[in-house]
Design a protein that fits this description.
Helix content: over 70%
Distance between the termini: 17 Å
Strand content: under 5%
Order of helices and strands: HHHHHHH
Structural class: mainly alpha
């Protein structure tokens, strides 16, 4: 159930991240002022739902057969198989790294003074996080 919710929620997270990046990119291109009510709240919303995604993912990971196998000493076997390595190590690590980038982008945009730099902080760091997420999604299991 948790794995299914993690998979369904991932689609929502990707849509919100893309929408947030586009919203902030248009803010840069149009040269408008950064609005805490709309722009910051959208970036914060994306960070919160992505954080919830990470919590779901960690719950799914700790309740999976892979975690039981790691606990039983089969970590080396998982590292020899590319698909198992993706599920056991790469996907969770890139998800956590993506969350750190999103949170750093949110914090950086909050403390910037120049509106253009606020927008660019979100655009660059959220885009990098989105790229990491897309590279490490187990597409064969998800689709």
């Amino acid at each position: 159930m948790i794995k299914y919710l993690h998979s369904v929620w991932a689609g929502f997270v990707l849509i919100v991240l893309v929408f947030t990046i586009i919203q902030h990119l248009t803010g840069v291109l149009k040269g408008r002022m950064y609005n805490l009510r709309t722009d910051f709240r959208m970036a914060l919303f994306a960070a919160v739902i992505y954080g919830f995604q990470i919590i779901l993912g960690l719950l799914a990971w700790f309740t999976s057969d892979y975690f039981t196998g790691i606990r039983d000493g089969h970590f080396g076997e998982y590292m020899k198989n590319a698909h198992s390595r993706l599920l056991v190590l790469e996907h969770p690590f890139m998800g956590l790294l993506g969350l750190l980038l999103v949170l750093y982008g949110l914090r950086r945009s909050y403390f910037q003074v120049d509106p253009r730099r606020k927008f660019l902080s979100i655009v660059w760091l959220y885009s990098l996080a989105l790229l990491l997420i897309l590279l490490r999604i187990p597409w064969s299991d998800w689709l």
